[in-house]
Each structure stands twice: as structure tokens, then as C-alpha cells.
Automatic annotation (TrEMBL):
The modification N6-(pyridoxal phosphate)lysine is found at K303. Its EC number is 4.1.1.28. This is Aromatic-L-amino-acid decarboxylase. Pfam families: Pyridoxal_deC. Its cofactor is pyridoxal 5'-phosphate.
Length: 485
């Protein structure tokens, strides 16, 4: 494919993607395929001779689309939003075209410097404390990770290194292995599984801190666990607070937890993967109060801020904590400006060496939507979630299981877990909308998340009417079975 054909085929692909997104509501949100569907549709081996673009293009609809779950459908209400917008897609095209590997400033100065500035832009949008911003001479700063899972792992590993060095300076008789064996990390019992996975990779113990009736962790619960572990000779070193938990979007009490972590020399990382985008709205910014006590903070613009995956924003108060944990300087990565103090080499801030020019997506989206446009997007989704909540509350057969704060409604039929499992199965087998469940304590709960950029009030109304009708049919069947027994 030469440049001339690329121009032609590129325009065809842009038209295809635009048509796909414009008409996505006409597609069945969840596919009908069974596991292994794809292998019989393609050859066993790569072709010996080149194939035409036309043949490949035809196979998109024939082979790929039948197995796609349409995350950007206005009938997709599962998990959390997977953000997307045309400006972000265009920026990703440019990123792919430039094709740089921005692991150091010298590897692509624009890639590094735009990222630093964009994370400052984003930090100012959510009113992060000044310590988290790079500015011209700050000690903190931001970086784009691939996911919130990576941000949590990076924070935990940096905290581990920092704690080991501190304890060794205080108690030189202890070996690194002895200290490692006593380290303990903590997170809410509602925290995302990636926190536990980070501890698994980091080879440290992790303990769940019990959440309260609102599914939030409070200061007294953390202090109780810390006191018990310190009395047993363990070394608490890391706490991951969650703002917007995956099951029900609950918020840990930062203003209580932060001072405890600071006093106990515990690194506090804040995971706000989904909810963080909402903090650009002044009416939701109070949910971030207490971030000033944190050592690191993360949220995903690729969830709710119209920047397509992957773009996970992470900030640290002291970038030296990251660099000190991960810095290696082989000759082939060194460059003239690395010790100047005025450049950033992001390879020291992440797990992989290579990195894409992801800040282009932020730059395009922030400029083309503006803060006001993004605020309107967030507020629209929050409003739609309250519309669905209203429908649930109007039906006495259903109950709301957690406070509806930001775009997520947790609800269920009043009755057994098996009844609600059957309802979810009916919903997803019908394939008109798509939901996923969670457990809140002993209850099996259905999650209704406002996801698509194109979702409107009519889609919410359709979804509720569909759920309500399936519930009616299900309850009638269950009642008949009960009488027969």
C-alpha cells in the first residue's frame, strides 16, 4: 500500500467508522456467537501472497462485527463508560502516523512535553493541589498510564521501595527480605480486584478494610486494622482509597483516612478510575476533598471524559518517589539533557519502556469540547441515571441498593438472589440491552451504568420498559412454579 492508496483507503475507513458509530443503535448490543466462532471463518495460516484491501474490508462485517460487543451502543449499560469521540479518534490516527516511542525526552520531545502540560491542564480542571502539578519547577507531576490497574501497581511498587529504604535506615540489622515479609497493603472490601492483583505482583500481603453501611471505608475502621497489625510486628506501608467503587460507586472517607496515613507513614493512593472525571464539575468536586493527604492519585479520562482507550491519568506529589524506584540508565537510553533538571523521561514513571503519543487525544478533546462541553456531558449522564432511578422507585417490586451519586444505579427485584440472577439472565439473553451484576454484601444486584456518549432519555425509557416487562414475565413464571410445588 503506497501513500496514494492509503489516502483512498483511509477515507473509506473513516466513512466506515463514522457510519458504524452513527448507526450503532441499529446493531444488537451483545453478539449471538458461541466461543470459538471465529477460527472456522479464517484460514489456519497467514497467506503466502498479498491479499487485496477490498477482501479484508469485506471481512470486517463478515468475521469481526458478528463477534463484537458494542460498547458505544446507547443500549450498553454494563461496567462503566468506555469513552470515545471523533476528536480523540482523529488524534489516535495522528499518533499512529507519527509512530514515535516516547520513552525519553530525546526520543520525542513533543510527546514528553505535551503530556506534562496536558496533565497540568487536567489537574487544574479538577482543582488538584499545586503539589501534584509539574508546572515549571514543581516536585510533582502527571503521567498517562495505560489503565488504573497500572497506576495502582506503580504506586504500590514505589511505596514498597520507599518503605524498605526508610526501614533499613532506621533498623539496618533487618534485611530487605525480612522487611518485605512484614509489609502490608490495605484497601476497602469494595476496592477493585486490581488492587489485590497489584499486591500479588508486588509480593506483599494485602488486607481488606471493612466498609460501613454506605460501602465506604472510614478512619476508625482503618485505624483498628493498623493497630492490630503493628502490634503483631507487621509494617503497614500502602493504602488504596477508592472514590467511586466498581460495585456501587461509593466513596471512601478521605478526610478521615488521609491524616491517619500521613501520621503512620503510609503511602495513600487514590483510585478514582471512573468517578474522577466528574470532579471537573464544581458541584461534584467536594467528593475529592482530602486528596491533599494523598501521595498519588489516578482517574481514567478514557472512561467518562470522551478520550478513547487507553488514557489513564496519574499524578504524584513527589516524582522522585517514582524515579527512585524504577530508574535504570543503560547507555543506549541516555541523552544529553537527562541530567539538566528541565526534562522528564517518562520511562522512569511506568512499567513498560515504550509509550505512545497518548497526550494528543487529551489535547484534541480538551480543545474541541472545552471544559464547559465536558461538564455538560457529565451532567447529562448523571441526569439520565437519576431518570432511571426514578423509574425504579416508582415500581414497588424493585429496590435501590445504594445511593445514586454519579451515573450508576444499583437495583434489584425485592426477593431472592436466584430471582435476580434469573432476571439478569433474561435481560442479557434478550440482547436488547446489556447489564452486569455485582454483590453488595449478601445481595445479588444489577448495575445500570450510563455509558454511551450518544445515550438519550428515550434509550433510558426503553431500557426500563424492557426490564419491567421481563420482570413481569419472570414473576408470573415464578408464581406459577411456586403454586405447582
Amino acid at each position: 500500500m503506497d501513500a496514494a492508496e492509503f489516502r483512498k483507503r483511509g477515507k473509506e475507513m473513516v466513512d466506515y467508522v463514522a457510519d458504524y458509530l452513527e448507526k450503532i443503535d441499529k446493531r444488537q448490543v451483545f453478539p449471538d456467537v458461541e466461543p470459538g466462532y471465529l477460527r472456522p471463518l479464517i484460514s489456519d495460516c497467514a497467506p503466502q501472497e498479498p491479499e487485496s484491501f477490498e477482501d479484508i474490508f469485506k471481512d470486517i462485517e463478515k468475521i469481526i462485527m458478528p463477534g463484537v460487543t458494542h460498547w458505544h451502543s446507547p443500549y450498553f449499560f454494563a461496567y462503566f463508560p468506555a469513552a470515545s469521540s471523533f476528536p480523540a479518534l482523529l488524534a489516535d490516527m495522528l499518533c499512529g502516523g507519527i509512530g514515535c516511542m516516547g520513552f525519553s525526552w530525546a526520543a520525542s520531545p513533543a510527546c514528553t512535553e505535551l503530556e506534562t502540560v496536558m496533565l497540568d491542564w487536567l489537574g487544574k480542571m479538577i482543582n488538584l493541589p499545586q503539589e501534584f502539578l509539574a508546572g515549571k519547577d514543581g516536585q510533582g507531576g502527571g503521567v498517562i498510564q495505560g489503565s488504573a490497574s497500572e497506576a495502582t501497581l506503580i504506586s504500590l511498587l514505589a511505596a514498597r521501595t520507599k518503605t524498605i529504604r526508610r526501614v533499613q535506615s532506621e533498623k539496618p540489622e533487618l534485611t530487605e527480605a525480612e522487611i518485605m515479609g512484614r509489609l502490608v497493603a490495605y484497601a476497602s472490601d469494595q476496592a477493585h480486584s486490581s488492587v489485590e492483583r497489584a499486591a500479588l505482583i508486588g509480593a506483599v500481603k494485602i488486607k481488606n478494610v471493612p466498609s460501613d453501611d454506605t460501602f465506604s471505608v472510614c478512619g476508625s475502621a482503618l485505624k483498628k486494622v493498623l493497630d492490630e497489625d503493628k502490634a503483631a510486628g507487621l509494617i503497614p506501608f500502602f493504602f488504596c482509597a477508592t472514590l467511586g467503587t466498581t460495585p456501587c460507586c461509593s466513596f471512601d472517607k478521605l478526610l478521615e483516612l488521609g491524616p491517619i496515613c500521613n501520621k503512620e507513614n503510609i503511602w495513600m493512593h487514590i483510585d478514582a478510575a471512573y468517578a474522577g472525571s466528574a470532579f471537573i464539575c464544581p458541584e461534584f468536586r467536594h467528593l475529592l476533598n482530602g486528596v491533599e493527604f494523598a501521595d498519588s492519585f489516578n482517574f481514567n479520562p478514557h472512561k467518562w471524559l470522551l478520550v478513547n482507550f487507553d488514557c489513564s491519568a496519574m499524578w504524584v506529589k513527589k516524582r522522585s518517589d517514582l524515579i527512585g524506584a524504577f530508574k535504570l540508565e543503560p547507555l543506549y537510553l541516555q541523552h544529553h539533557h537527562q541530567e539538566s533538571g528541565v526534562v522528564t523521561d517518562y520511562r522512569h514513571w511506568q512499567i513498560p519502556l515504550g509509550r505512545r503519543f497518548r497526550s494528543l487525544k487529551l489535547w484534541f478533546v480538551l480543545r474541541m469540547y472545552g471544559i464547559k462541553g465536558l461538564q455538560e456531558h457529565i451532567r447529562k449522564h448523571v441526569g439520565l441515571s437519576h431518570q432511571f432511578e426514578h423509574f425504579v422507585l416508582q415500581d414497588e417490586r424493585f429496590e435501590i441498593c445504594a445511593e445514586v451519586i454519579l451515573g450508576l444505579v444499583c437495583f434489584r427485584l425485592k426477593g431472592s438472589n436466584k430471582l435476580n440472577e434469573a432476571l439478569l439472565q433474561s435481560i442479557n439473553e434478550a440482547k436488547k440491552i446489556h447489564l452486569v451484576p455485582c454483590h453488595l454484601r449478601e445481595k445479588f444486584v444489577l448495575r445500570f451504568a450510563i455509558c454511551s456518549r450518544t445515550v438519550e432519555s428515550t434509550h433510558i425509557k426503553f431500557a426500563w420498559q424492557h426490564i419491567s416487562q421481563l420482570a413481569t414475565d419472570l414473576l408470573k413464571t415464578w408464581e406459577q412454579n411456586h403454586h405447582q410445588q
